[in-house]
Amino acid sequence: MANQAEHAQARIVVVDDDESNLSLMRHVLSLAGYLRIETVSDSSTVIARVLADPPALVLLDLHMPDPDGFTLLTELAAAVPHDDIVPILVLTSDVTVHTRERALRHGAHDFLTKPFHLPELLLRVQNLLRVRAIHIRVQAHDAGVTRELAAHASVERAHEDQRRVIADRVERVLDGHGLTMVFQPVVDLIDGTIAGAEALARFTAEGAPPPDVWFLEADEVGRRVDAEVYAVGRALDRLDELPDDAFLSVNACAETIRSGALAVSLADAPGYRLVVELTEHESIEDYPGLIAGIDVLRERGIRLAVDDTGSGFSGLKHILRLSPDIIKLDGALVTGVDGDPARRSLMAAMVHFANETGTMLVGEGIETDDELSVLRSLGLSHGQGYLLARPGPLPLAAIDVPRLRTPPPPASTPIGRWDRSPGDILHDGPVQELSAACLRLQLLEARVDDGPMHAELAVVIGSIRRSVAQLSEIGARLDGS
Q1: Nearest Cα to 132, choosing from 75, 50, 64?
Q2: What are the Cα distances from residue 51, in Å, to 16, 17, 48, 149?
Q3: pLDDT at residue 425 in the model
Q4: What per-residue confidence (pLDDT) applies to 95?
Q5: Which end of the chain is more exposed for a tag (fewer CB within 10 A), N or C?
Q6: Residue 270 in 3-state DSSP?
Q7: By C-alpha distance, which of 381, 376, 366, 383 is closest to 331?
Q8: What is the pLDDT of residue 428?
Q9: How confident is the model over 203-213, as pLDDT tens digits?
Q10: Cβ neighbour number for residue 147 with a 10 Å cutoff
């Protein structure tokens, strides 16, 4: 019969006190392809055998010596777990309605009277085995779901425990424990004076995470804005210890600026001495809200700096939309600039852009004399880095870097004229101008439909044409040499 093969290994227990009936049932079921058939003539052993290893099906005679089939039905119903099913097919020669109803009421799943037709018996057996198989699959699935839910709940509990640890750690800092501020100078690369200082949070508690991780944790527990505003307040407490002509730069993410909480905390501060440094490492989706928050700060004379330019989401369109007063170039652009013509060209382009837009340009991560020398020769006005000064306590020490004791090369002197190959000279001269023009072109591209931009685009195109012509002349001279 169809589908019998899939149940061939199903364990079937036949209970009858008549050995001839047991033999007949074993023969019939074996011919139908069932391989695991057990016959039981002693009804007193049935309950123990069923509970020890629940079968897929029980074929049960009703009229047997004590315990009879009705007693077994009652005992099996009580003994089998409520979430399990052991199908029972009653086989009896008693055809009365009362017997049928009584058997079904006591827990029988199906009823067949003797003599029965073989095809009908096998169909009923097959149907009950299918019920048992479906139950096993559902039970296994439910067990799997239960395990998954338990595992998920365990992870959630662990996560909540971790959140509580983080929240407690953040709260302790906000209550005044474990936070100190250090200050890293922003240095004028022309004369070596201190133009300002960036306030940086440090955490002194044992086992405290790095500052960037701590602020991310504060964000995870919904306290990022409070944490940044608190750090800004601690930095403002030290403002009077900076030189009178030096600005104080404080860090804030976009959410802190949009929230208005930062503006409130800076309400009584001298705005002309403050810079808010936007530290954003995720895509900003609410530019209008951010710009509105920036405008409130600017109304008080506070300047905006964009940090990590050249990495992450601090790109050209970001700068174009925010029009910052200060652009801080990521250390990845500064590192190795002395040996990388591409970095020099990009740096020259940014210097050109900063000069035309009146923006202060700060190179971060300056660590070697050669990097400093190249940046100064490119006209970069300001810098930060371990070579100049490490973050430290106030008051700030004077900058003592031998390279800064000598003036940078004149702005008209193309970088690379000293001890440079013709290829380097070619790259460092008109190519820098070309790079600058291309950069301006990218910045203006987003506003190409803006009428007032047409004149600026014409200037850019003219600059590109002049640079190309200059490159052609130098190429011709190189070919003739």
Answers
A1: 50
A2: 18, 20, 5, 29
A3: 40
A4: 79
A5: C
A6: coil
A7: 366
A8: 47
A9: 987 778 899 99
A10: 10
Are the C-beta atoms of residues 306 and 319 closer than 8 Å to each other? yes
Q: List the one residue out of 252, 302, 274 whose CA is nearest residue 196.
A: 274
For the chain, which residues score pLDDT lower than 50? 1-2, 312-313, 412-429
Domain boundaries, the chain: 5-141, 178-408, 411-481
The CA-based diameter of the chain, rounded to the nearest angstrom, is 121
Extract the tokens encoding 170. Answer: 């953040």
Q: Who contacts 268 (Cβ-Cβ below 8 Å, separation ≥6)?
A: none
Tokens found for residue 108: 């029988």
- Give 404-419 pLDDT, tens digit per residue: 988 887 654 343 333 4
| Interatomic CA distance for residues 191 and 480, integer angstroms | 42
Query: Up-side HSE of residue 277: CA atoms within 13 Å toward CB?
Result: 23
CATH-assigned architecture of domain 5-141: 3-Layer(aba) Sandwich (3.40)
Tokens 């801080």 map to which residue? 328
pLDDT reported for residue 465: 72
Q: Are 344 and 432 in contact (CB under 8 A)?
A: yes
Q: Which among 115, 116, 84, 89 is positioned nearest to 100, based on CA atoms?
A: 89
Any bridge partners for residue 89, and if so which?
A: 59, 110
Strand partners, 180: 202
pLDDT at 443: 55
Predicted pLDDT at 12 = 94
Q: At what angle do helices 211-220 and 118-174 cross, to 10 degrees?
A: 120
* Calpha distance 342→438 (Å, rounded): 14
460: nearest Cα among 442, 474, 481: 442
CA distances to 9, 94, 325, 357, 422 from 319, rounded to whole Å, are 72, 93, 10, 11, 35
What pLDDT score was predicted for residue 113? 87
Q: Tell me: domain 178-408, CATH 1.50.40.10, correct?
A: no
